[in-house]
Amino acid sequence: MRTPIIAGNWKMNTTYDEAMDLVEELVDGLEGRDVEEIDIVLCPPALWLFPAAEYVEDTGLLLGAQNCHATDRGAFTGEISAAMLTDQCSYVIVGHSERRQHFGETDEIVAGKVAAALRHGLRPIVCVGEGLAERDAGATDAVIARQVSAAFAPVEDGHVAECVVAYEPIWAIGSGRAADGVEANRVAGLIRGTLGEQFGAARAAQIRIQYGGSVTDANIAEFIGQPEIDGALVGGASLKAETFIQLCTIAAGKAGA
Ligand code: PGA
Questions:
Q1: Which residues participate in substrate binding (predicted)?
Q2: Which residue ranges form the domains of the chain, and what is each CATH number?
Q3: Catalytic residue check, 168
Q4: Helix (H, G, I), strand (E, B), or coil: what is residue 30?
Q5: Residue 66: Cβ-neighbour burial (10 angstroms; 0-12, 13-18, 19+)
Q6: Number of CB atoms found within 10 A of residue 210's CB
Q7: Is the C-beta atom of 82 inside 6 A of ligand 1?
Q8: If you average pLDDT over residues 90-109, what whole number do you get?
């Protein structure tokens, strides 16, 4: 009932040529694969969204941005608003831990971005996740519940199902040390439970929850096979066409199974 969703977060990688080559390889490579049952979202750097949109047109592949500003326009040098992204994108990642860590994004700022995305018809991929110290201190559940409640505070009932949550433990990102599938499923269940308190269990059951953090074609099956996990937010492995194609193929196979 929930369509699995695999999103590739390219982060601040690729030149223009590399980006176009990668999109082309993904379009060609995924064409012959049986991946219609899942949503595949590419999130290249914002500059490449325009040219990438031409490549993915009519392919079924979707585009997402990696960030947006909470305000629609104004004196925010260097920023990109959700309003500016709507022509190219269907999704936007918000509150990634790298943005929380390096750019001072608070729960309140993230909530503002979620609201902006929904206001402009974009589906937010809301990232939450605990740091290693928080996990070691046994604070994981409290941190996740706080981040989820804050991010969804401005969300109206009618928009809930458009949102995606990515559970990304910070210690698992880019480390090659993915979380355990069962534990990731437990936290995804906690996220759904927290959303259920705000919107009711039926609504919460419609939200897709991804796992993110060192996902590759070698471990995607462990996550997509979990009942509460509906896909993955993929960083490093989304930059290698062959790996990402294989990862999506495995995810689609599990979805259809
Ligand atoms: P990773 O990144 O797959 O390279 O660990 C995931 C992410 O940051 O979204």
A1: 9-11, 174, 214, 235-236
A2: 5-256 (3.20.20.70)
A3: yes
A4: helix
A5: buried
A6: 27
A7: no
A8: 98
- Taking the centre of ligand 1 as the mean of its atom positions, its distance from the CA of residue 99, in whole angstroms, is 13
Binding residues for substrate are: 9-11, 174, 214, 235-236
**Residue type, position 221, single letter:** A
pLDDT at 257 over 70: no
Specify the pTM: 0.97
Structure-block tokens of residue 59: 């392919």
**Is residue 230 a contact partner of residue 5, using CB atoms and an 8 Å limit?**
yes
Ligand 1 near 95 CB (within 6 A) = no
Active-site residue, 69 included: no
How many residues make up the chain in this entry?
Answer: 257
Helix (H), strand (E) at residue 132: helix 132-136
Counting beta carbons within 10 angstroms of the beta carbon of residue 131, is it exposed (0 to 12), middle (13 to 18) or buried (19 or more)? middle
